[in-house]
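Homework help board

Subject: predicted structure for assignment chain

Our instructor gave us this sequence and asked us to write out the predicted structure in token form, then describe one feature. I got the tokens but I'm not sure how to describe them. Can anyone check?
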Amino acid sequence: MDLDPALPIGRRIQLLRERRGLSRAVVAGLCGRSESWLKKIEQGSRQAVRLPTLLRLADILRVADLAELTGQQLPLAVYGKPAHQAIPALQQAMLTYPLGIGTDADRLPSVSELQRRLDDAVTLWRTSRYPRTEVGALLPSLLTQTRQAMRVLSGSERRAAAAVLSGIYTMAQRFFAYQPVPELVFLATDRAMAAAQEADDPLIIARSAWYLARVFQDSGQLGQAERLVIDAAELVRPGRDDASSELRAAWGSLQLMRGFTAAFDYDFGTAWRFWDTADDIARSLGPDYCHPWHGFGPVDMQVEGVWIDVTLGRYSDAARRAEAIEVDSIPSPSERSDYLVNLARGYLARRDDVAAYHLLSKAYEESPELVKYGQFGRSVLHELMERNNSMVKSEVRALVAKIELPI
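My token output:
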């Protein structure tokens, strides 16, 4: 939306809200504020909000640049997004093109060895408290050697190597997410899809589409995300009752992704309709099933239900749903941390600062990196700092120092 540079911030917020088709009550509720508060902001009778609330409004209104809200050139990417120390090495591997082999072809690892190393990286991502640090150290050499292998292989071996390469780029996208390198997030995800198509494997293509849809959602391109997921789901639609677990999980995770897209668009009925479909598939896979890439399984579906409720602003429903989930049953430290962060978001919106801090602190214990680099954990901490509640003031400041949050 092209806005007049002279428009005040309140009027900008109103126009962007109306573009999204959201009421004042919905936007204010998602900010944890009253409708009258937002009305005063929009009408200019209240002064401009502080940075943490601007960041929350930008997220709700699908604004990628704070200039749309403020009228000043303040790119959103520079706020609250620390750069991991492993970024330069992986960026170098991403942007170096192996036009020559650079080593003898017979010294390159076999495709099976490359696949094993990728599988190890995926397992490490799910089991480590510090997934970015530990997996980030593995990806540059794995990416370089797999790209070199692609230069010398042909036929079925080349397609197998392309499947590995697609997975490596997907892991790179997960590493770059929520850091100040949005161009690398999209580049990695786009390359993952290109390699998946070269692999000519429906399951690999579906996996790449799942992650690419997440990127489209985060950038506000909800229609593009929806079309991509629909097309990918057709590739892996189970045709028989005895279809493989992997095929059913891939299809189910794409139905869940459609639910995510609807939740981003604040479409309650559609979000839960697709969640129900995905939940039926997850339950059919057995109580202990968990897909290694999508985290798709019965336990994960309950966690995602909390996420959908929080995204829709239904915080009481999220709290009730969360009561039925045992945190220890969630298989991954980062997923446990993500679950606790989402609960913290819900309690923050209900203005229960003590509970929000307690949950965020537990999230940090599970996975310090997810709170430090994740979008929502940092936004909760920003808001707690802004509220300055004396009950948790010193604890919040201590956590701010731990994750080096800019104030």
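Reply (TA_rk): Your tokens look well-formed. For the description, you could write something like this. Residues 9-77 form a domain with the 434 Repressor (Amino-terminal Domain) fold (CATH 1.10.260.40). That's the kind of observation they're looking for.
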